# Entry
Amino acid sequence: MAILRTIAAGVFCASMFTATASGAAEESLAGTQPLTATGDFALQMVNGIDTFLLRKIDESIAARTTYWHRDSSSPEKYNESVQPNRARLAKIIGATDARVPFEGLEIIATTNLPTLVGGSQKFEAMQIRWPTLRGVYGEGLLLHPTHDNPVADVIVIPDADQAPEMLAGLESGDRALPAKQQIARRLAESGCRVVVPVLIDRDNKYSVGAGGARPTNQPHREFIYRQAYEMGRHIIGYEVQKMLALVDFFAADATRTKQKRPIGILGYAEGGLIALYAAALDTRLEATCVSGYFAPREHLWEEPIYRNVFSLLSEFGDAELASLVAPRALVIEAARAPDVSGPPKPGPGISGGAAPGKLTTPDAKIKISKEIVRAGSLAGLAWKVAQINSEGGSGPPGDLETLATFLKYLRDDAALAPLGPDPIVHRPADPLRLKRQFDQLVDYTQHLLADSDTTRRAFWARADRQSRSIEKWQESTASYRKYFYDEVIGRFDVKKLPLNVRTRRVFDEAEFTGYEVVLDVFADVFAYGILLVPKDIRSGERRPVVVCQHGLEGRPQFVADPTVNDHHYNQYAVQLVKRGYVTYAPQNPYIFEDRFRTLQRKANPLGKTLFSIIVPQHEQTVDWLASLEFVDPARIAFYGLSYGGKTAMRVPAIVEKYCLSICSADFNEWIWKNVSAHSPYSYLHTPEYEMFEFDLGNTFNYSDMASLIAPRPFMVERGHRDGVAPDEWVAYEYAKVRQLYADLKIPERTTIEFFDGPHTIHGVGTFEFLDKQLRWNPQR
# Structure
């Protein structure tokens, strides 16, 4: 867990900036421009990154065309031409696992639950389940017409907070829907065989981490999202798989019975999302209806985090998803969306930390219509697309015209029947059904975690460690470094600006001089930090540099200001400059809590992360440091604590100009820390909702990131009483690093220091490691 989040970043820091900026003459470092800007550079940095990301989101609409090569000359060629897009969509929503084959839908009946749970004169309702993935079943209701030959097979997906019984007209009291909204019932009474699945809801009753010890206010969908995302899966993908398993059954049943029936899918709100994704992936769905969901998706970052899909907007908006449904029929019902203002509130014994996110009803005439028009222009095919505004676009789902149009698109001779008598209600929904669904998805993801070490070994099979050659190791891992940057971290294809370095002297101590530094990265994005330069550097001498990186909610002043002695950092940049090193303390943008976490939300749909900004900031920084006349460009090292330790694993893995990396108070079995539903150390139940990196569990654990740093020196600093992880996790993961360096015949280039202390810079073994690896004698 990120212990450093307790450090204040408010009034204390603002006053410290004022004292720092005015405490010495405003002199610049030779070869740089004067730094005249004032104010909170950390806040300005975060604001600038925000502006940059919002601009990139806006630009993504036009940029998506590079991923599409549609051939609209015929429906067959069109489907063939967009198949690569379907494959990429399946990957980013985690709908990649082989589904379990099955013969038929299983009717659930017990001594307390009869086979028939409700119905009317026109249909019978039964509780069913069907296998989808290993140990994962879909559950819901089957509404079967009382006559033997249904006109169509339809999946009707409720919103996440609706039970299937509500759409089937089998609920009474406060949970009963008006007859007009009983969509599944109306389709069943019109002759369709209907399955109404259960979706994971937005309650938090079962969102309990640490093996039951840490109740949280995370919606069930977020609790599953967090762990699944790290494993390259998604709550969206899991539920799409359940729908496609039903399509598998309907298609196989038609073959078995020799009764070809069209298959359709209809969903409302969260169910509309699932219906749209399922139809985009599977051409066997002949008609689709999406209610209360379809709209421009450029504000995805404001929606609940369980809708966050990595790299979605780089290739897909709702219009692009609709173009994957083409030339099959699509009905868009502009209906009132559920009113979701945020996650459940924390309460007694229930911790906070769920990600913010809301759902609102988009403007039907402007936003929805515009997105539908855009979808038609993308497809370039003649296809049946209808927009129906329920009561002007803000009414309830289930407009008569919507259902009639959907049925007509599904089968020309089908018609919406008038409502029959009220259904007979036999019993309420199974109270344990949702828990079964929730537990199955958690268990499935935890199995993926258990298998992840084997999965990563297979991923790394092309890396040549058998030859025990440094050269062959570097050659064979170059593609992994590129993959790590492009697919995991996310690389902005943006040319960096000239450095335009501005500096201002802020410290004039007996042994060193300190400068604030600002340099440009991208438009609106800059890098900021504090450079400390020893005063005893001789003319022509080139010194090693140690870049000293703060942690969560930190600032360079916590590390490099001689008047500030935070117990986590112990002035280690000051200690090192007194030891003779040049030091530099960068400001990284993980500061201001939800303000920076929202940056991650904005970056993710572009296929990017916060480190997509941090890496080029460090590239610019290292280039500038290397240009200084008193710096040895071959001896620029990195040393970070906590979130700075996360940086120590990721940035030097990509920025090869860092000759060495030290990870302090962070190194551990990173995948377990992010995914485990049982460990008290897991991020699964903490406020760090930005921590999860898509598909990392199948590609790069911390030992694998260290493998990208190799053969450069690498060290871990670990306090026995550090709360980020237990010693055994750290030692287990580090043992893999030690073995690699031994295989490469360079064991002296790596080490770990355990010390009797907490989440802090110890500065003993690490300082000795720096002296040795950077060939520096502090007693010279």
Remarks:
- The longest strand covers residues 123-133.
- Residues 329 and 384 are 5 Å apart (CA to CA).
